[in-house]
Design brief:
The protein is an alpha+beta fold and about 60 residues long. The chain has one domain. The protein has two helices and three strands; from the N terminus they run βββαα. A three-stranded antiparallel beta sheet has the order 1-2-3, with helices on one face. The mean pLDDT is about 85. The structure holds zinc ion.
């Protein structure tokens, strides 16, 4: 199960295994499936769809 991250105007989906954020749940699920199967390595073709995100939960 991927983690949902609600931002001001959009929702991102986090791979809980590596923390990469994706605008599309489909890619987050692919990333998580990959990370869980290949512990510690990321698929460059999947990661390419991720977006930079400020660390969640560290404000205030
Ligand atoms: Zn991942």
């Amino acid at each position: 199960m991927v983690k949902q991250l609600i931002q001001e105007d959009k929702t991102l989906y986090l791979c809980e295994a590596c923390g990469a954020a994706y605008p599309e749940k489909e890619w987050a699920e692919k990333c998580q499936a990959w990370c869980e199967a290949h512990g510690g390595t990321c698929n460059i073709e999947i990661i390419a769809h991720s977006v930079p995100v400020e660390k969640a939960g560290e404000q205030g």
